[in-house]
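Predict the 3D structure for this chain.
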Amino acid sequence: MQHNTDTCPINKWNLHHQFQVIQRKIETVDRTFETKQTALKILKDGYRDKSLNIEFLRYQIEVKRLEGEITNLNIEKVRLRTSTHLLAAKEVGEAKCAHIEDWKYIDGLIAQFLSPKSTFTPIHPKRTQERKVHWQKALIEAYGAQEVGSERIWCPISQSWQPPHLMSHAQIVGDRVTELVAARLFGPPGPWKGHLWNTRNGIPVFHAYQKMLEDGSIAIVPKHGSSDLQVIVLKDSERRRDMDPEGQHDQVPTGSALHGRTLEFLNNYRPGMRYLHFQFAMSLLREQRLEADGWWRRQFGDIWSLSNRPKWVCEALLRKFAIRIGHFSLEEALEFSGGSPRIRPKDSKCGEDDDDDDEVFLSIVQHIYQVQALGTKIN
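Done. Predicted structure below.
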């Protein structure tokens, strides 16, 4: 016979025991997490100073393996900490409405995982085709990107008209981030109902450019001394590559011809800087993991400073992303976020310090962008 949890007395000893069990698990996960982080640092330092005799391919495999394990440990820490919130709510007799916000965060985390095959009930609802089509039409209309009397679409990066089957409606910050996390990152969306399906979170571009934005090969940033936007190529090998010598792809510049290219729009509508800046930040941090220490500063320090100046993204979260995704030291993370050496700045986007909440947001974003960097497609 099942008991009604609303009327059954709470077993204080049992709750205390569960607290202790969960706390021990958290301590174990924390120790394992620190061990994996240390192993990753030793691996990277050893490869860079050549004290570790390992081929580059093997090095990449080991880095990806350790990063995958670290991501899973972060997710486990979120799950365990939320369990303590629920137990605490039970102890004060509020089990029915225990930390509703915490469960919203966990729902956001669950939404990052694909549903098992052949399941009748998906883990998370899929975006509707109607919503996607509506957003794509609104995007083209906002940018004035469709040629009059034709179906061709304007690509501001290549500065050319392209047939629609070669174009993509690129979402700068993907909808898998979820609106809850986006609100934490960027603050209130203003007159829009949300951030992710705001047309300023999109840009019509050639297919290849969408893929490069998604995998962090390129970013769109402000151009110094003007109000224009430009493309920068983050990957060194791609940035040094010359255009096709036969000129077969002149209409779609790549390599050195793409780096520093100014975007040309047909009207005054522009993508939102907060979304472009976040994509730039994640791309820099992902690329830094396989580069020598300080690579981001030497290659893109001036561009990053120009882009980061208006503080488009919560400074505290940006600093923690630098540590968790880019494996920065605290000092370098402070430099990256543009912050002062305080534990947590108070700003309009972050509000008061709340490390438990941050763990959830950090884990969601870290999971998305590290999985993308590991080569797994996020749908």
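The first helix runs from residue 12 to 48.
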